[in-house]
Amino acid sequence: MILPRFDTLLLQREGGVLTVTLHRPQVLNAMTAAMRDELCRALDLADADDAVRAVVFTGSGRAFCAGFDLSAGDTAFDPAARPADAAPGRDGGGVLALRLFASHKPLIAAVNGAAVGIGASMLLPMDIRIASEDARLGFVFARRGIVPDACASWFLPRVAGIGNALAWTVSGRLLTAREAMAGGLLSEVLASADLLPRAQALAREIAEHAAPVSVALTRQLMWRMLGAAHPMQAHRVESRLIAERGAAADAREGVRAFLDKRPPRFTGTATADMPPSYPWWTEPAFDAP
User: Which domain holds residue 60?
Assistant: First the structure.
């Protein structure tokens, strides 16, 4: 893949790892509709490129993302005052969150500084979230007179529990990285210099050892079964997928590699080799309430 130039992002690929850097450092990487659209395009590119096996997200400068760009002043959240948008009538953060949710590639957040508002809620559909010691995270929506965005009312209780979700959103207070880790939002807190190397090492581990089709399926199984009413729903879907994957070349290679005590060489791709039963759900349409 020839990496395109974006106005608000920097893209770098090394081996199977694509690193996406939010790049508006002069405004602490504040989110705009243009940045949201470019993030969705970057995810499209990653999913379409079988050489990309995992994606890391981080920010330029002192912040990950300081929230929605408020340069428009006190009408920043008023839809009547916004320029034409590609998603009229919809929360733009939700459009981004749903695109992150649908990714075939595992997503790793390296939170290098402030992650506030959409900067915090966009982390929730990612699969691994780590941060530097000086990072601060805040679901500050109530302090701005609005409500959580980016499907956070669905994601946050599932990631951090309903108690933490409510405590963090109704107060809107900033969390230290250690508090966020204690609440389950982060899995690791590291020195700033160690953050991005650690995120990329986690991504390489996936890229070098896991079958891409299995990763894509596992990611969707885990997220989508959070809403299942009974474990029987998981049993049905897993039974079909295990049978389909068990007959595939990747399963034979995985066993041979284990017995031979060597790294696997998986050939299946998420663009061409998803099993017949995928997807096992019907994607709902957006109907304005």
Answer: 9-206
